[in-house]
């Protein structure tokens, strides 16, 4: 089977696509994967790093309000459809799988015109414009969060093998040693994505003395720019700050509780590994981060705190109270595990096989 993946823009679009690619190739070494994305996007770095060829087309942003850019959308889409059609003619894929983003609509239209089966995966709780358009062109649609797209199959999120196979308890000693943490101390993980999160950095640094006074050690991914991070005094209880954590599996294993943003991949991974979390959604866009966290929170696997409400007082009260309540933490972890899906890659791959088989 030859698969053409259409993805790009953010890691939230790219990572699920590459996780699916890894699963398909691991399941059948004869599977070929080609990715369509942008030359200037994040995919230009991530896709080759995972070993897959990248074919590029110009991005087609979808403005949400009337503007000059909106008037140019039809021409840009037409040009990009022509480019993707040429790629399809050259690569001759058995299926096109799209994950939304700037390159998705041209790929969806080109696949439909070429008679190539089209599969669409929506990662967020609220489907983006590209996938809402694409869903009109195929019956093979999948979603990570129930209810994000009408008629879509709930498959969960394609996850990395390191997450799928993680045994947090068995890996805890190794994980804490890896980050220079004490082996038997309650541990809080704080992270806000690859660039960090200013609100999380501000609040946690302000509350750091109180957190350590409670005997809680912290592993905090602060981002490359360390935006909003205040001084953290020396102390006998570890407070480890890193610009970036490249072993999130070990970070999850080290932690008893996480404080994080609520990107689609973050919510899916935390639930899958059964790590309870205090979700602090990024207050931008259409509110999708709060929607991403709502299902696992409703299932009992986490708490939801508005960005503006995440203060040192909330850390010293709510977060520390949760960390020192072992029974409640354990119950939240079980609830998260019950909601989480570890075999999202397999489920999505089955849908891809169905689409190819029905051709």
Supply database-style keywords.
single chain; 359 residues; alpha/beta; Rossmann fold; seven-stranded parallel sheet; 15 helices
Return the domain count.
Answer: 2
Overall strand count: 13
Are there runs of 5+ residues with pLDDT below 50, and where? none
Which CATH class of the largest domain applies here? Alpha Beta
Q: What sequence of helices (H) and strands (E) makes up the elements?
A: EHEHEHEHEHEEHHEHHEEHEHEHEHHH
CATH superfamily of the largest domain: Glycogen Phosphorylase B
CATH fold description of the largest domain: Rossmann fold
Secondary-structure-based class equals alpha/beta
Biggest β-sheet strands, sense, barrel? 7 strands, parallel
Percent of residues in helices comes to 40-55%
Summarize it:
The protein has 15 helices and 13 strands. It has helices at about 10-25, 45-50, 70-90, 105-115, 130-135, 160-165, 170-180, 200-205, 210-215, 250-255, 265-275, 290-300, 310-325, 325-340, 345-355; strands at about 1-5, 30-35, 55, 95-100, 120, 140-145, 155, 185-190, 215-220, 240, 255-260, 275-280, 300-305.
Structural notes for this entry:
The chain is built from 15 helices and 13 strands. The protein folds into two domains: 2-159 and 342-357, Glycogen Phosphorylase B (Rossmann fold), CATH 3.40.50; 162-339, 3-Layer(aba) Sandwich (Rossmann fold), CATH 3.40.50.2000. It has 359 residues and is α/β, with parallel strands linked by helices. Strand 1, helix 1 and strand 2 (32-37) form a beta-alpha-beta unit. Helix 1 packs across helix 15 (344-357) and helix 7 packs across helix 10. The strands form two sheets. The chain has a seven-stranded parallel β-sheet, sandwiched between helices. A six-stranded parallel β-sheet has the order 10-9-8-11-12-13, with helices on both faces. The chain has helices at residues 11-27, 43-49, 68-91, 104-114, 129-134, 161-164, 168-178, 198-206, 208-213, 248-254, 264-273, 288-298, 312-323, 326-339, 344-357; strands at residues 2-6, 32-37, 54-56, 95-98, 118-122, 140-143, 153-154, 187-191, 217-221, 239-242, 257-260, 277-279, 302-304. The protein is 45% helix and 15% strand. The model has no long low-confidence stretch (mean pLDDT 94).
């Amino acid at each position: 089977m030859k698969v053409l993946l259409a993805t790009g823009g953010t890691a939230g679009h790219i990572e699920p696509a590459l996780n699916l690619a890894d699963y398909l190739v691991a399941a059948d070494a004869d599977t070929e994967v080609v990715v369509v994305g942008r030359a200037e996007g994040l995919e230009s770095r991530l896709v080759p790093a995972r070993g897959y060829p990248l074919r590029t087309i110009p991005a087609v942003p979808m403005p949400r309000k009337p503007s000059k850019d909106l008037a140019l959308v039809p021409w840009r889409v037409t040009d990009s459809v022509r480019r993707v059609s040429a790629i399809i003619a050259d690569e001759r894929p058995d299926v096109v799988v799209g994950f939304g983003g700037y390159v998705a609509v041209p790929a969806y239209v080109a696949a439909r015109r070429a008679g190539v089966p089209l599969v669409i995966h929506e990662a967020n709780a609220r489907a983006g414009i590209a996938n809402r358009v694409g869903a009109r062109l195929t019956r093979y649609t999948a979603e990570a969060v129930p209810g994000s797209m009408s008629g879509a199959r709930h498959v969960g999120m394609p996850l990395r093998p390191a997450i799928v196979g993680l045994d947090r308890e068995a890996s805890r000693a190794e994980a804490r040693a890896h980050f220079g943490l004490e082996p038997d101390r309650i541990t809080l993980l704080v992270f806000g994505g690859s660039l960090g999160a200013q609100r999380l950095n501000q609040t946690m640094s302000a509350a750091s003395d109180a957190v350590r006074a409670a005997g809680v050690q912290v592993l905090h991914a602060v981002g490359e720019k360390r935006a909003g991070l205040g001084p953290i005094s020396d102390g006998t209880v570890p407070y480890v700050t890193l610009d970036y954590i490249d072993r999130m599996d070990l970070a999850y294993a080290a932690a008893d509780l996480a404080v994080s943003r609520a990107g689609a991949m973050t919510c899916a991974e935390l639930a899958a590994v059964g790590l309870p979390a205090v979700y602090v959604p990024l207050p931008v866009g259409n509110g999708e981060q709060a929607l991403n966290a709502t299902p696992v929170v409703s299932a009992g696997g986490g708490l939801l705190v508005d960005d503006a409400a995440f203060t040192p007082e909330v850390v010293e009260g709510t977060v520390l109270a949760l960390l020192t309540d072992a029974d409640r933490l354990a119950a939240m972890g079980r609830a998260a595990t019950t909601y989480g899906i570890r075999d999202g890659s397999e489920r999505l791959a089955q849908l891809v096989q169905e689409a190819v088989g029905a051709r």
